[in-house]
Structures are given as C-alpha cells and as structure tokens.
Amino acid sequence: MNKTLALIEGKGLLDTALSRWGEREKGATHVGDSESLVYKAQLGEDAAFLRFSLGELQPRSHIEAELDFIKHLKDNGVFVTYPIHSNAGNRIEEIVHDTATFYVTAFKKMPGRHINYQVDNLDENLHRNWGRTLGSIHKQSKQFKPSGNKRENWDEDKVIQYAKKGEPNSEPAAVDELKCVIDHLSQLPRDTECYGLIHCDFAFRNFLIEEDLSTIHAIDFGDLCYHWYIADVAFSLWGARHLPNDKRHEVLNWFMDGYRQECSLDDKWLSEFSWFIRLRTVYLFIRYSSGEWDKIKHPNQSQWIEQTRKSLSEEFVW
C-alpha cells in the first residue's frame, strides 16, 4: 500500500478529518489519487469528496487561491464543484501527524458522470458543450482579481523547474524536448486576452456531464495556474492526440465552436496548438518517470512511460 495512503488510514487521520465535518462514524471510501488523495463520504445531507493535500506538495496558500477562484466561478454562474465548510466554518482543515501536514477540503459531489474516449460516442454536441464550459471558465478568469493568495505561473511549477536543471539526467531526450518547447513558448505574448488563470487539466476525467450531454460540471481545480488559454484547450483534448488526423481536427473544431460561444480567442493561437500538446506530453513524462511527486502509480503508467520515451524524438503535429 502506498505510504501516504497507509498514513492517512492507518494513523486515524481519515477519522480525524471526518470528525471535523461531524461524520466520523459513517466512514469514507478511497476513490482517487495523484498529488492528493480523495475519499468519497457522506457529510450530512451532502454526498461529498474529501481531498487530502500533502503540505509539502500543495501549500495552504495555493489551496486558498484555488478556492477563491472556484467561488468566483460559482458566483458567476459556472457549474463547478464547491467546498463544504467544516463544523468550525473552515474551508480547509489542517491535520498534522509527526512531520506530515495535510490540508483537507470537502467538495460537494456534483451530478453527472465521467466520459471515456474509448467507450463513449464523442459527438459534436458533447465537444461543443465541453468547449463552451471551458470558455465560460476563461471568460470569468479574465474578470477575476485575486484579493490575496495567488497561484503560480506555469513555468514556476516544480516539475518545470526540476527539468530546467537538466533532471532527470537519465532522460536526456525528455530534457531536450522540454527545453525546445519552453524556448518556443518564451517568445509568445502574455497579455490578458491570451494569458490568465486556467484549469490546466480539464480533461474528460475532470468534469461530469449530465445525461442530456448539455450540462457539464467542472471539478478538480488542483492544477490551477497562470498559462496561455490555448494551453487549457490543448490539455483538455490531449487524450484525443492518438485519434486519426481528420478526427483530431474535427473534435478541435467542435470544441472551439463551443468555446467561442463564451470566450473569444484569436485563430492565430491554433497554430500553436501542437506545441502545447508537446508540452503536456513531456511534462507528464518527466513527472511520472522521475517518481519525485506522484505518491501513487497509475494503471499502465510504466507502459505509458516506455512508449512515450520512444516517441519523444518524433515531432508531434496535431
């Protein structure tokens, strides 16, 4: 069992967290993980998810900034998951065990289901609504003014900084690829029409869609950062990069048609799209292959790392 998972469940931290919301006796079920561990629980009348964020990976100030942005989105009509306050009225509960500090947040479970690229019929209507939802997030991002805590710029990210130092030195092709991509992106403008606060992982696992395929609820803003808006589009559709060429262009066009119902984005940014797909690929490769941050391995992770290592020398074009 993963050490962090064992610590939370074996040392009573999960019970402690549940008690902060007054539900210690009901228990919770582990349902997901990456940098944070997530449990499904019933908090009063609300089905909810408890998220444990390790302080050394997610400082409290970053989580506060995340919750501030989520509140801004919800207050302005975007369908998003939102925090449930603890019995003490806190959005974040701090739990300390020895040298480990966890910041625990509870989010209301939203209606709908996840989609799956391998199973679902990914039609025009779904992609338009997916893009429209992301456009609504970006529209509100342009109006959002942080009052206190602020999220990082994308290139301040710990994985990016790690790779800039030439690490992991066992993966020179990945380090070279990231340097090539960063050199190109450094030439792009960062004005408020093209650059701002983005979800940074609005892929199919991070939204729930209702059965009519029209209402989408955004979840998991843990990777929130300042980046180019086109990056959010690319990261959202990254899972479609292996589709046939004509299908890739079709889903991108559908997605952007929906996006532009809510937010404008100059067509010139689509010419940069492949660069952001490359950024996502090499970023995840370095993150997963180094083993420095993700405390739990994902299914088929080793296989994906090996396949990606072989393809890094091939320039990807959407």
Characterization of this structure:
By secondary structure, this protein is of the alpha+beta class. Helices cover 40% and strands 16% of the residues. It is built from ten helices and nine strands. A five-stranded antiparallel β-sheet has the order 1-2-3-5-4, with helices on one face. The protein has a two-stranded antiparallel sheet with strand order 6-9. Strands 7-8 form a two-stranded antiparallel ribbon. Helix 4 packs across helix 8 and helix 7 packs across helix 9. The longest helix is centred in the middle third of the chain and has 20 residues.
Shape: globular
Residue share in β-strands: 15-25%
- The count of helical stretches stands at 10
Low-confidence stretches: none
Q: Order of helices and strands, N to C?
A: HHEEEHEEHHHEEEEHHHH
The value of Rg in angstroms is 20 Å
Strand order across the biggest sheet? 1-2-3-5-4
Summary, kept brief:
The protein is 40% helix and 16% strand.
Blueprint of the fold:
Layout: H1 3-10, H2 13-20, E1 28-33, E2 36-43, E3 46-54, H3 60-75, E4 93-97, E5 100-108, H4 124-143, H5 158-164, H6 172-185, E6 195-198, E7 207-209, E8 216-218, E9 225-228, H7 229-237, H8 245-259, H9 273-290, H10 301-311
Antiparallel strand pairs: 1-2, 2-3, 3-5, 4-5, 6-9, 7-8
Helix pairs in contact: 4-8, 6-9, 7-9, 9-10
Features:
318 residues; single chain; five-stranded antiparallel β-sheet; two-stranded antiparallel ribbon
